[in-house]
Amino acid sequence: MTQGLRSGGGLSFCDGYNSGVAAVLEYEHVAKTYRSLFRRRSVCALDDFSLSVEQGEIFGFLGPNGAGKSTAIHLAMGFMRATRGSGQLLGQRFGYAPARKRVGFLAENVALYHQPVKDLVRFYGALNGMRDPELAKRTSEMLEVLELRDVERRNASKLSRGMLQRVGLAQALVNDPELLILDEPTSALDPLGRVAVRELLLRARASGKTVFLSSHLLSEIELICDRVAIVNNGKLMRVGRTPELLESSEESEIVATGIDGSNLEGATEEGNEVSFVVKRADQRRAIERIWAGGGEVVRVNPVRRSLEELFLELTEDNSSRASQQKSNRAANGVA
Amino acid sequence: MIPVFFIALNFLRESRWAIAMLLLWAVISGSAAGASIKTAQDDALFFLKQQAVYGVVFTAFLASSAIHNQRRSRRILAVLAKAITRWEYLAGLELGFLIAAAIYCAALAGLGGWVFHHAGLPASGAISLAIMLFAASAVAGSLALLFSTFLNPLFSVALTAILVALNGVLLQFSPVLRQVVPVYELMQSILEFSFEKSWSATWSGIAWAFVQSVLIWAVASAIFARRDVAVVIE
Question: To 10 degrees, what angle do helices B86-118 and B41-72 make?
Answer without folding.
Answer: 160
